[in-house]
Design goal:
Blueprint: H1 13-32, E1 36-37, E2 43-45, H2 46-53, H3 58-63, E3 66-67, H4 70-79, E4 91-93, H5 98-107, E5 118-127, E6 139-148, H6 153-170, E7 177-183, H7 190-203, H8 210-218, H9 229-235, H10 247-262, E8 268-269, E9 281-289, E10 296-302, H11 306-309, E11 317-323, H12 324-333, E12 345-350, H13 356-368, E13 373-375, H14 382-391, E14 394-400, H15 402-406, E15 409-414, E16 420-424, H16 428-436
Parallel strand pairs: 1-5, 7-8, 12-13, 12-14
Antiparallel strand pairs: 2-4, 3-4, 5-6, 6-11, 7-9, 9-10, 10-11, 14-15, 15-16
Helix pairs in contact: 1-6, 2-5, 6-10, 7-8
The structure holds adenosine monophosphate.
Length: about 425
Amino acid sequence: MGQKVQGTEDLYGGYMRAWQRMQDTARELFGAYGFDAIETPAIEQVDTFVHGIGESTDVVRKEMFRVVSGALFGDLLEKGTEAGLKPRQRMAMRPEGTAGVVRAAVENNFVPQGAAPAKLWYAEAMFRGERPQKGRLRQFHQVGVEWLGAPDAAADAECIIMLMEYFKRLGFDPSKLRLYINSMGDGACRPAYRDKVKAFILDHKDEMCEDCLERAEINPLRAFDCKNPRCHEVMADAPLVNDHLCGDCAEHYAQVKKYLDEAGIAYTEDPTLVRGLDYYTRTVFEVECEGSGVGAIGGGGRYDGLMELEGGKPTPGIGFAVGFERIALALASQGVDLEGADPSCVYVAGIGAETRGAVFSATLALRGAGVRTEADYQGRSLKAQFKQADKLRATLCVVLGPDEVAAGQATIRDMATHEQVQVPMASLADEVKARLA
Ligand code: AMP
């Protein structure tokens, strides 16, 4: 028997409905904010992620699933390295959504000179070669948005406001949500700050782990995220980005907070919040749900340099992504049911083989009227059909006996009260819909 790959899941039944509910809620809410849906390919050239996410990130260094076509696989085995492949032949499964959307925006010129911003949302599977555990999968699902061409601090605030509203609509108790925000500075102020953090780590190199010493060289800000308790203690005294923002970044950050205050959004400033991907500039944010034990349920930030890294014109951008699986776990921990009830239906039962044609017509008519309709396809007895109807959570049964069919009539049976009425076959759909309403 085949088995699914470790860290992947089959989505079906109530779990699938929960995922669809997340997408429906996103379509409705993000649509109201002017976002259109986009779907980018699940595989991209490796360079799209290397340029976009950053060579020094864990995602690019350790977690990307590489894709090689069967025809090239032999070559790869023989040469033992990807280096023999042309850059275009080096592909990877997308580990996150932003780099692909930004690549698409550059390639299709979504934001030509002078145009209004492009506002896009997606709901897609992501792939990361992480060690699977609760809330950490190798194939997981994210809903995210990307807003390209809007430098204004109002865009940062609106993104965050929309995200918090999204969580509310999914059923989270807003008082349990913790929103953390920070500004990571930009090209003008971050390099000097980065150097200060690097110098700080090197000054404390005897107290810090190997990983952090490596981070000092390639991505020092990531040391704030180290899971090692000793590193955490040491980093508590490291220089904080807030004290090193340039005037423009400080002003932008102050504006974002002003807008959030005006909208009544509660937040905690966390000057050590540095998001894992290299592309963030200025505003970054993360949301946790108290007591859920699954870490961040969503996060995002501004990435004003990313369009250029993907080969486009300088274009500001901001976005966020939320993880479906973690949201499902967090909501379950709050006792909120995202799955909803199994759907009900109307069941059409026939008595005897000679009514099969009438069952077929009635079923077609009901489905044509938009009613979720089921029937028997296994030649079952009436009793067995009623049993099946109960299993399928039918609220009504349409019963067709030979005499009724001959008289152009049908019986509608209420499955809860067992009340029955005869109606003309010609008005069956209307009669059923009236009873369902
Ligand atoms: P990131 O792109 O790492 O900022 O992640 C954004 C969101 O995606 C997180 O807040 C999680 O909800 C979710 N997420 C990230 N990695 C995983 C994973 N391996 N498994 C499940 N969910 C994940």
